[in-house]
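User:
Care to share a sequence and structure tokens?

Assistant:
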Amino acid sequence: MTTTKPPPPAPTGHAAPQALSPPVPAEGPLPKDHTQAILETTKLVAALLKRSGLPFALAGSVAAFAHGLPAMFQHDTDFCVRPEDADAVIKALEEGGIEMRRAPEDWLVKGRSGGEEIDLIFELERRPVSTELLERADVKAVDSVWMPVLAPTDLMGSRLAALCEHYCDFGDLLPMARMLREQIDWGRLERDHGSEPLPDSFLYLLERLRVIDARNTISGSGPAGPAREES
């Protein structure tokens, strides 16, 4: 006799509205390439958020694509919103036809549209999404739709903060570091993340690969250029 497990409890941090559905499991393995489907979902969400007038910024792999990295998406599209705007953002997306639901994590809410997943993120780099973070965003065209996109330093910082013993893959981070190295404030990332072993390891790898200058020379503010060749 099989038993059905009860749904997980509601998040304990940023409380999700009671009307949201409980989390649902993924429907089998994802196809190898969701690129255009995720871009269409991204454009729909951005259009609805722009119409609402609430501040937001595109994050994750689609934000990296907006900054010039190759597009190869397999999971979802991510948007940063302030915690205090959560209910209003959820309402705007639901009125636009997007199904919203609780997530097991207490720092995001999930949505779904056209078979693609959407994450609304309220916390980045272990801190609540702030007005200052969203004001630093760059307005860029994403497959012809203009929207605010996390600034390169904030985007890389969010990826460094996500590194842990269970997820320590530098394979996605290295191309981003190479592509955006002149736009990233490496000194700020060193100050914010250099005391953590895994981000520190990645920054050391960049130094050894001569992607960035020696870190004792980039401790000041401002983006660091590519490492100089030795004569």
